[in-house]
Description:
By secondary structure, the chain is mainly beta. The chain has one helix at about 5-30, and strands at about 35-40, 45-55, 60-65, 75-80, 90-95, 105-110, 115-120, 120-125, 135-140, 150-155, 165-170, 180-185, 195-205, 210, 220, 225-230, 230-235, 240-245, 255-260, 270, 275-280, 285-290, 305-310, 320-325, 335-340, 345, 350-355, 365-370, 380-385, 390-395, 400, 405-415, 425-430. The strands form 8 sheets. Strands 1, 30, 31, 32 and 33 form a 5-stranded antiparallel beta sheet that branches. Strands 20, 21, 22, 23 and 24 form a 5-stranded antiparallel beta sheet that branches. Strands 25, 26, 27, 28 and 29 form a 5-stranded antiparallel beta sheet that branches.
Amino acid sequence: MKRSQRASTVLLTLATLAASFLSGATAQARNRAYQVIYKFQGGTDGWNPVGVPAVAKNGDLYGVTAGGGTYNIGIFCRLTAPRARGGAWKKTTLYNFPSNEGGDLVIFGPDGNLYGMAGQSIFELKAPTSGDGAWKYVRLYMLNGNSDGSAIQGITFGAEGNLYGATELGGDLGCGHGGCGTVFELKRLEQKGGKWRLSVLYTFDGSGNHGAEPFAGVTFDQEGNLYGTTNYGGAFGYGVAYRLTPPVRKGRPWTETVLYSFDRGNNIGSSPEGPVTFDGSGNVYGTTAFGGDLNCAGGFGCGVVYELSPPTEKGGDWTYGTLYAFTGGNDGANGGFGGSALLFDSEGNLYGTTTGGYTFAGTAFRLSPPANGGGAWTETTLHGFTGKNGDGGVPTGLTWGKWGDLYGVTFEGGTGCQRLGCGTVFEVRP
């Protein structure tokens, strides 16, 4: 071999090794930014965590599982945060749901207690008054499955301390299969020992341009209006974004306004599934399960992150824009099938999760706005879930927590529970 050829070979080898080292360093850096902080083991330990963790002021995480526990219907548990980042989190089962209960989501109320929902019921979990006492489960209201609605999709507190939410089904039983859903208010006790009272604020009927079957809860704006999305209905049948305006006079009905009808077109999202988020200018952000890149998912599309901008003139139309279209299985490294709520950081970046991409086990992602107005948003995959070798699979959303990190759960992955795993709790450093 000539000297020049040998030198070229050595340089090429060094370059290859350097590239390999840099690639490995990048992967290690990405791995350090993500870690599984707990793996459910099944049985009495619980399996298949759901919802998004509720974060206490000290950074502890509270959540529920869909299975396991003493009665095999799920548990309510706490992960106690370590004193220093990188330490071990300690899991404690606080309550075993009996066979006639269960939980899909818990949130902190203004009184410091935890409130949750599951199917038809809304409940409160009261902390013990003594250190060795037991948590107490109190059912606040059980939806009748008809006019009240059925299959609660999310709950949130209003400024006055009442609970608000949306149901996927029920309401108008002549609409679709089992009704088109409702938006409701659950009023807090007016006197000690009194019952909570539910009022249906709006019943979806899917007629005309109206939506049907919300797959997400509702979000308040600064003026007390409620915003949300439906998965079906609208002008094209692929769901709507809507606003509910409270009445001027007490006791009058709320007014529904369709802001936008989704349409399954190229680079246009369809079938929204997550709740909406606001920025400081009143723009609305959300995710869709389908639409966008129609080369993905057999022509259905892998979903988008979208923005809806309010009209510049009273009575005008809201403006739709696709910020990012997921490509999912097209390149493997990109997410697909959005459905989580979006979170803002102080720099205007958006964070969320998908249930597809990375061998269809989902991603945690960040979307960064363009440096100059009108440019493209940049997507960064913070973690691609594999559901293998102890990693989680199928994340259900993110929340801000201790040290300014992001936390969430995966329905699958981790260890145990045969092939798919029992699920995990994870941390992402943005």
